[in-house]
Amino acid sequence: MNKPQHPVRFWTAVLLILSMSALDFAPAAAGLTVSRPSGATSISSTRDADMVLAQRALENKVVGQKLRDYGVAPADAQARLASMSDTDLHTLATAAKGLPSGGDGTGAIIGVLVVVILVIVVLRLMNREVVVR
Predict the structure, then answer these.
(1) Average pLDDT, the chain
(2) CA distance 97 to 36
(3) What are the pLDDT digits (tens) for 24-35?
(4) Where exactly are the structural domains of the chain?
(5) Closest Cα to residue 54, out of 86, 32, 31, 11?
(6) Helices (H) and strands (E) in the chain — how many of each?
(7) pTM here?
(8) Looking at residue 98, what DSSP letter applies?
(9) How far apart are CA 58 and CA 75, in angstroms?
């Protein structure tokens, strides 16, 4: 066997072959796992589901601020919510379905701004001129 011209390349290749063959000893195994319930839910009736929707609507910052403007404390609103009839609670829950639960929409605004900034950066990297009129 001839002596290699570049011993660093030779030993790098030998080391690479040995390490790649050592990584292939254990066969890979994959499969599906058994589905388990994540736990019992507290929603057992339509009243409970409507109560959850109404409470999420009360967590909205805009709704909470409006209630404070009218002089209603959050504890009073929760007490009144618990004492509502089923039909009134269902009416409130269906009206609250259109509201964002617990948020005020700033996440969507931030997401749009990030996309706009990303487009501007990509255009600048492509040596395009960005003009806002």
Answers:
(1) 75
(2) 30
(3) 666 677 888 777
(4) 46-103
(5) 86
(6) 6, 0
(7) 0.43
(8) T
(9) 11
Identify the burial level of 49 via C-beta atoms within 10 angstroms of its C-beta, where 0-12 means exposed, 13-18 middle and 19 or more buried: middle
What pLDDT does residue 7 have? 82
How far apart are the C-alpha atoms of 98 and 23, rounded to whole Å?
54
User: What is the predicted pLDDT for the residue at 49?
Assistant: 82
Position 54: which residue type? A
> What's the token pair of residue 70?
């009218």
Q: Which two tokens stand for residue 83?
A: 């004492």
Token pair 């030993």 in the structure block, residue: 11
The per-residue pLDDT for range 74-116, each reduced to its tens digit, is 788 888 888 888 888 888 777 777 655 555 567 777 777 777 7
Q: What is the DSSP string of 37-87?
A: -----S--SHHHHHHHHHHHHHHSHHHHHHHHHTT--HHHHHHHHHTS-HH
Here the tokens at position 121 are: 């950066």
